[in-house]
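Justification of computing resources. Each target in the renewal requires a structure prediction run like the one illustrated here; the chain below, 262 residues long, is used simply to show the kind of job we budget for.
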Amino acid sequence: MNVKTLLVTSSAALLLLATPPVVADAQLHFVAPNNSGGKGTANAEAATSVYVASNIVRIEDASEPRMYSLYDVKTGNLTVVDRSQKSYMVMDSTTLASIETEIDRMRELAKEQLKTLPPAQRQQLEAMMGIGLKDAPKVQVKDANKSREIVGVKCNDKQLVSDGTIKHIYCIADTMALGIQPADFNAIAALLTAMQKLAERTGAGTAIVPLDPQTLGGLPVRMENIGSKIRPLVELAKIEQKTLAAEVFLVPEGYKRETPTF
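Resulting structure tokens:
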């Protein structure tokens, strides 16, 4: 399993090889409204689904149906499962450290190779490769003083500003507004915080868009990505609470554990 694929398709996750039966206390389903017409979630494509059970969070993205991720709140480990390859990768602290070291090495090598290019071309390639992100302007979170209601969930808009320009508008909801148990809210919050730390460890630093609820003031239920051609808008479509089989939060039996490759 390639590390680049892992970092892009996973948000993060964890593996429990043995765990007692669990109940999915909360399920949050997000969609990407179709720009071809219509409003709300009626004319939209599935985007991301989040499932919570006890201290485990499972996240799936419709753009990568062959993969899903698991996150264990207690251990902080992350696991990405690849159905097509019948394999999985556990991202513990040791794995993350090795990935970070290798990315730093590759970044420094790329910097040396790019020095021979004309300035304009070099800057373009650096942006594509994320080389200059450590020195990029910090993303600031500002209150937009606007409230919304997304499928019955009240939220407040926050502007994510970089270098004086609004890059994203997130609508943030708290536990009470979402109507889920505090433990489930905290589990999802822990997942987003882990994703934040993972992104920062790969070298993007202050340029990374904040995901952690502590910075945002809650969980985003509507995410407007200004100028983006890929999912310019993602929003909550449905919240469910029902029992799921324990297997939903496990790596399937017989799957092979893999190590990062570069």
